[in-house]
Amino acid sequence: MRLRYGTNPHQPSTISPVHPDHSPIRLISGEPSYINILDAVGAWQLVQEASTAFDRPAAASFKHVSPAGAALAGPVDAAISTTYGIEPAGGSVTSAYVRARDADPKSSYGDFVAVSHPVDAELGGFLQRLACDGIIAPGYDPNVVGKLAAKKRGTFLVLEADKDFRPPTEEIREIYGLRLTQRRDDLPLTRASLGEPVVGTLTAAAIDDLLLGMIVMRYTQSNSVGYVRDGMAIGIGAGQQSRIDCTSLAGAKADTWWLRRHPDVLADSDRAELKLLERITRQFRHLADSLTPTERQAWLSRLTDVALVSDGAIPFRDNIDEAHRHGVRYIAEPGGSLRSHEVAAACREFGIALTQTGIRLFRH
User: Fold this and answer.
1) Which residues, in sequence order, are CB contacts of 299 under 8 Å at separation 6+?
2) What is the SS3 assignment for 214?
3) How far apart are CA 139 and CA 258, in angstroms?
């Protein structure tokens, strides 16, 4: 496999498997860049882990080494059906990806796609209508590869992942004349990882959403906070130095996700003549120009049962105050900060169930 260039076009770059006779990915079409490989490998690990944990297809929409969205296969709601003009079966791999992409369609423009199951004709046809740069999957149905490879004037990247590949235990990074070695982050994440709540109780659905959130945060640039609902990440705040900024950013994205489901917004974008990008653009314009502050707040007050996962300990109660404003009812975080008791007290005040997992999920 040959790389077009490194992180930037002026940086030459190469790639080779750690074990020459066993590569975790195979190039089918296109010429990847350094960042394409980072996105593909990170996204593939996320969807493979999520699919294994839930025994359902999983998908991710990756941009700049973090997920813009991630989801399990499941029902497609009216907003997704209206926006994308698609109504796949609730258990299909297509439903997993469209639910992942709909978390933040603005950020997913030009994304790298990852799905845990082979790409069938339905998903292949759907991807032909989208602006994305490439895909990684464990296989492809006949005739799908040729159609995908023709995207972007033949530059669309198609990679096949070896689903049976087991990575080395140690990871090595060399930078600025230094070699860093650490054990791969292979700690199993299961429902049992959530432990017993320190505040409130967790429903079965909340446990699943929190577990999915932990898996998503494991592959998101730190600091990171994710909002999850019904098997979908609906807001991800990644790569911020301040955790409250992560919480606010992810919350704002969750609000936008919910506002795009407002009946007036859907009615305005449900026009046969509009192309996909025009529909999404029209939705965002309607949010900015047509909904009054009172209408926005009335609709946002109906968003509830949201799960929040933080990759690191929540240091102050301001994160809980912010989460409460975005319909959060369940939180999982490592715990152990100096003010964990204040965080727990804030959760108790708002009726938010809190579990402290003791598991930090930083990624750099």
Assistant:
1) 258, 259, 262, 291
2) helix
3) 34
Query: Which residue's entry shows tokens 């999404």?
Result: 280
Coil, strand or helix at 213: helix
Peptide bond into 223 cis (omega under 30): yes
CATH level 3 topology of 25-171? Cytidine Deaminase; domain 2 (3.40.140)
- Copy the structure tokens of residue 247: 């919480």
Does the pLDDT value for residue 90 go beyond 80? no
Return the number of other C-beta atoms located less than 10 Å from residue 261's C-beta: 19
What global pTM score does this model have? Answer: 0.96
User: Which CATH code of 3.40.1350.10, 3.30.310.50, 3.40.140.20, 3.50.50.60 fits the domain covering 191-356?
Assistant: 3.40.140.20
For residue range 310-321, list pLDDT tens digits in order.
999 999 999 999
In CATH terms, are 25-171 and 191-356 the same topology? yes
State the average pLDDT over residues 134-163: 93
3-state secondary structure of 228: strand
| Domains of the chain by residue range | 25-171, 191-356
Residues that are catalytic: 63-64, 223, 364
Q: Give the pLDDT confidence score for residue 272 in this predicted structure.
A: 78
- Among 10, 9, 115, residue whose Cα is nearest residue 57: 115
Q: Is the pLDDT of residue 152 over 90?
A: no
